[in-house]
Amino acid sequence: MEKLRKIRTTCRSCHGGCGVFATVSEGKVVKVEGDPESPISHGTLCSKGLAITQLAYHPDRVIYPLKKIGGKLSGKWERISWDEALDTITEKFKTIIAEYGPESIVVGQGTGRDYESHLYRFANLLGTPNVLTAGHMCYVSRVAATLITAGTLPIGDYEGGPKLMVLWGCNPQWTNPDEYKGEGFWRAYKKGAQLICIDPRKGFVADKADLWLQIRPGTDAALSLGFNQVIIEEELYDKEFVENYVNGWEAWKERVKEYPPEKVQEITWIEKDLIRKAARMYGTIKPALIHWGVPTEQNNNCANYTRATTALMGITGNLDVPGGNVLFVNPPTRTVAEFGRHRDLSKEQRDKRLGGKDFPLGARVAFINPKKAWDAILTGHPYPLKAGILGGTNPVVTRANAREVYEALRQIEFLAVIDFFQTPTTELADLFLPAGTWLEQNHVADNWKRHGFVLARQKCVEIGEAWQDHKIWMELGKKMGQEWWSTVEDALDWLLEPSGLNWEQFKEKGYLQGERVYRKYRQRGFSTPTKKLEIYSTILKEWGYDPLPKYDEVAESPVSKPEVAKEFPYIFNPGLRTPTFFHAANRNIPWLREIRPDPIVEIHPDTARKHEIEEGQWVYISSPRGRIKQRAKLNKHIDPRVIVAEHGWWFPEIKTPDHGWDISNANILTDNAYETLDPAIGSTNLRVCLCNISPCPA
Q1: Which residues contact 43 (CB under 8 A, 6 or more apart)?
Q2: Which of 132, 274, 396, 501 has a Cα-to-Cα distance from 382 of 20 to 30 A?
Q3: pLDDT at position 2, please?
Q4: CB count, 10 Å around CB of 590?
Q5: Is residue 528 part of a domain?
Q6: Radius of gyration, CA atoms only, the chain
Q7: 354, 323 contact by CB (below 8 A)
Q8: 627: enclosing H helix or E strand
Q9: pLDDT for position 419
């Protein structure tokens, strides 16, 4: 009998980074537990990480390449070899490139499994500018907006001893998003840091907060501008920083005069005295950090909010200081951009990027808005998308206007997918490539994040014929004649080269951390055209946009669409998070589904009473785009005018090819019309539209 082995690795069941010990017996992982020496998670592990063995060894997991025989919707899946799968894709892609050009192939991912560097290398060497990610509405959009403002993304420094924490539309205890882990927030809270929570719903964080600001969904940019106005009016700003390191100060002072607390109260539904109190706390308690979440990005004010809030950090002296929001230094490894060969995509091909001229800030960080892809498939304009390869994504469930997404993927000429399970999206594909879980990969993890760390993710097992995503992109790239390394580990050696380590040495070390230096702007300024914090953006001005942050009313709200609101009087906020699911993932994992068996819609008791809806009852939710149903949970801690629902729902237990994708899918109700998007980035307005509710018949 094989001796038990403990392998130190790094989780990726959500956004990753948590240290793990995986116990292996007879070639199988039998247990995972937190690594107390992890610099990221300090031994903690969430429910999603703990359930990885149920995912990896799930009886429905696809662990061999498959080919669809007999048509997209009516065909049957047949097992094939990796050689046949890669040769089929290669032949199809080469034919399309010869006839239509490489831009007619779309390469895409969802939240990703730490393979952005490899996916972009494949796409750039292929010659397609059309990379479809979640970045237009999640994380990369905040990177894009802060790149032109501060030179990089400011990260809340929980380790640095904050005296005040502003949690703005996020719940780190449940979501562990991006650079952050709930454990870091909780330790800072337990040490006595004060807490402001900005959220439409009173959950765990708001319940612990010194101040809870119950904001109208989608109005975050107005609140940020209001904070700026109070801090400037009351001269709570850092005069030395403003005088030496801000571009556009006088113009900014004039702009924020348009957003006094009285006006911001009307927009946000937050009482003006509470706005003043919160702004004063942030302006006077030092150091203070702001930790914002994706709700601030998933509306038409994404860039405006992000830039106004970065301005807040700067003018209060909380930018790049211990316990504030820090511009962390990356470890000495090659960057995702360098590995991804972004410079190899010619200007001619970059100019063909779908929506590049419409959303230049999005194009600057090399992604496209998904509606541009669906339009190109369905209409052929400005040119047709003929084929695609999508990894780790389920856009039929996770992207706005889901019926349009479904129709586009049904009609695309050729589609290959990379995933663990059959989903409503993979069922529309021609080829299925089985991906390895994080237990089945070697990688320099977290190398896309901006918290200053990279971490060793070590392969623990191999399951079936599944390949880690990095290998899939590499081997397909080599089939296409691209320049790659012989093995995944050879590529990691090159990635690590600047550190003086190779993969074998790095995995023994466990992690690398960039140099911790603060107030770097004093020596070298900011990485912007003026070398200052560009509250007044020279880049946006050059593109013809307003160079200063502002607030635009949400595209579909009681204010902007009063006629629509007569039939759909409630604000639909479909962003309710749970500790069990990662967007559309994990609905088939027994431990996790047992915790949350049904999709939940939260309704204020007064609103429920008005519609004769009771606790636990199935409820119809409708919008101008369609109707779904979820199970009612009454919550007195939301506004009676707001309906809070869960997204990401499909039903793996429904074995028909559609897997019930249109029963409870919140994105049946959301919109992706161009007039609803952020005008610079293309962020989708996922969090705010209008809806109505009614009880389902018994």
Answers
A1: 19, 34, 35, 36, 37
A2: 396
A3: 63
A4: 9
A5: no
A6: 24
A7: no
A8: strand 626-634
A9: 97
Low-confidence ranges of the chain (pLDDT < 50): none
Residue at which a domain ends, from 296, 326, 356 = 326
Q: How far apart are CA 155 and CA 585, in angstroms?
A: 27
- The pLDDT tens digits of the residues spanning 39-64 come to 999 999 999 999 999 999 999 999 99
Give the count of beta carbons closer than 10 Å to the beta carbon of residue 72. Answer: 16
Distance CA 392, CA 108 (A): 9
Quickly count: other Cβ atoms within 10 Å of residue 190's Cβ.
Answer: 8
With CA atoms as reference, report the closest residue to 188 among 205, 210, 164: 164
Q: pTM for the complete prediction?
A: 0.96
Question: Domain residues for 683?
Answer: 562-695
- Side chain identity, residue 617: Q
* Continuous H helices in 209-284: 220-233, 239-245, 249-256, 261-268, 272-284
Query: Rounded to the nearest 10 degrees, what angle do helices 261-268 and 220-233 cross at?
Result: 170
| Contacts (Cβ under 8 Å, ≥6 apart) of 460 | 7, 9, 22, 24, 29, 439, 440
CATH of the domain at 239: 3.40.228.10
Kindly compute the dihedral angle of the four CA atoms of residues 340, 341, 342, 346, in this order, to the nearest 10 degrees: -140
Neighbours of 295 (CB within 10 A): 23
| DSSP for residue 316 | T
What confidence score (pLDDT) does residue 89 get?
A: 98
Nearest 10 degrees: CA dihedral of 359, 413, 113, 307?
Answer: 10
572 closest CA partner among 663, 646, 648: 646
Q: Which token pair is 32?
A: 């995972």
Exposed, middle or buried by CB within 10 Å (0-12, 13-18, 19+), for 561? Answer: middle
Number of H helices, E strands in the chain: 28, 27
Q: 326, 348, 371: which is the final residue of a domain? A: 326
Give which of 323, 387, 526 is closest to 95, Cα–Cα: 387
Q: What confidence score (pLDDT) does residue 163 get?
A: 98
